[in-house]
Design goal:
By secondary structure, this protein is an alpha/beta fold. The protein has two domains: about 140 residues, D-Maltodextrin-Binding Protein, domain 2; about 100 residues, 3-Layer(aba) Sandwich (D-Maltodextrin-Binding Protein, domain 2).
Length: about 280
Amino acid sequence: MKKILSIFVAGVLSIGSGIVSAGDKITVVSMSPRASAATPFGMAIKSAVNGRYYQSANCEDALRKFNATDDSVLIYNSSMEFAGRNKGLDCRLDSLLDSKKVVFVGQVYMKICRLTGTDYGFGKRKTTLGMASMYAVPKHQAQWVGAGANLNIVPFAGAKAALRALYAEDVELAWLSYGLAAKQKNKIECIGSTNPEADDFFGKQFPGLSIPDFRITYVILVNSKKPEVINRVKAVENNKGWMNFMKKSYTTGSWDVTNDDAAAVVKYVDRMEKNWAD
């Protein structure tokens, strides 16, 4: 009798607190590689909802897993869609907007940084710039050079690998997210930003760049018809761990969004494909 009562009370508490049952545990699907700056973003969501985490093999695998898994969340990354399009993979955000619910759209901008005490820049002497390989494409470099920057882009597996190369002095500059750059404190100094609101915005220095306002754009989508699942994901907005991550990573965004807001992300990736794709 005591056992039955305990089970009953636990069930009531679970319903009252809005917690999804074990059978409804949320699966957080990442379409980004582990080395990506997007991985901490996805892990922050996973921790906030106390869910499972699925590390996809590539963006197509991520969409397959997301579409096939009830009560799942996709951490969409605009850079992964661009890279996927460039490789002939089908992982388009617009394929999801008619059937899945968008709950968040956000972004993080980038900086170009050098080791503190060095004077590397974009002047007469050619400079090496370490960058994640998905952006380190010939057209991107050609646009920098055409805009007046004397540099050679060197591809790496991700921003962290580019940062390690910067510390090893294998490259002279590194392309880093705001959050990753901030973690280095006074070890590095940054000489430009892709944030249009920044004083050192690249669009001011190099008006010929096709995408001076580059950012990683995140979209969180939910594959569930259950209000309690959707509400649990939306409740992440007020989770202290999540809010701390957003602050430290310099990621901004809104939970007050609709699927129409995500359509603007599709147009942004179209612009990347038009200007940077091989």
